[in-house]
Amino acid sequence: MKPAVLQPYRFAPPLLEGVILGRPNRFIMDVEANGEVFRAHCPVVTRIGDIDTAGRPCLFSASDNPSRKFAHTVEALSFDEPEKPFKRWVGLNQTASNRYIEHFLRTGAFGQLAPHPESVRREVKVGSSRLDFLIDEDLYLEVKTPLRQLECEVPASVARLPQPKFSSTDRALRHLEELARSMETHERAIILYCMYYQNHGFHFYHGTTYDEVVAGVAGARAAGVELWQATLEQDAHEVRLVDYAPMEGL
Predict the structure, then answer these.
(1) By C-alpha distance, which of 117, 107, 165 is closest to 141?
(2) pLDDT at residue 167 is higher than 70
(3) Do residues 115 and 160 share a domain?
(4) Measuring CA to CA, which of 9, 138, 230, 250 is 20 to 30 A from 89?
(5) Do residues 219 and 178 lie in contact, with contact meaning Cβ atoms separated by under 8 Å?
(6) Total structural domains in the chain?
(7) pLDDT in tens, 5-18
(8) Which parts of 114-181 are beta strand (E)?
């Protein structure tokens, strides 16, 4: 489904471009831009697919907040080579994803998912969890920005890292259970999987906990929880909602 309203989320000021030199730990990336090397916040708490981020072009934002440990945040990376003038970007900021989705909700872009919402509330407590949005008091919406598994072709020139075992599903399953329980008192509940790059469709990670996740998804769907996917594009100037649709498989 195409967005009902084409009003992108704009970055002010625009993002800046650099090159990632390394990722010393999951919270930090070393970046070079205009001959300067600095440490930046990495907004992804997991692996980014199985890629080695060193040498990848990136987009980063700058903050003048003196209380921040790092003034910059890496917002996106590219599989294109640094010298290529026009790059395709993979959006990384999982925290900012809710801000982008709120923008598209309030501008009416999700016409088939949540048409013309009058009320959009953030961080609503449900059971022992906090869900991302409550829309018009009858639709719970939980936003996920999966990056542990990239659903796109990665060029052979991009270095890879060995895949570790992945078993942290507690939070995801808890949200599925809370959304399923919310159907007792609300009309709809949706999990929206957001991918900030051109992709061939979201699929759940086939790791050590795949069967557990599949069972959790099946239970939530049986209770009436809907699974949707949104594809968005990002560059130095804006984030655009490209399309969105209900998910059929896993």
Answers:
(1) 117
(2) no
(3) yes
(4) 250
(5) no
(6) 2
(7) 789 999 999 999 99
(8) 120-126, 129-135, 139-144
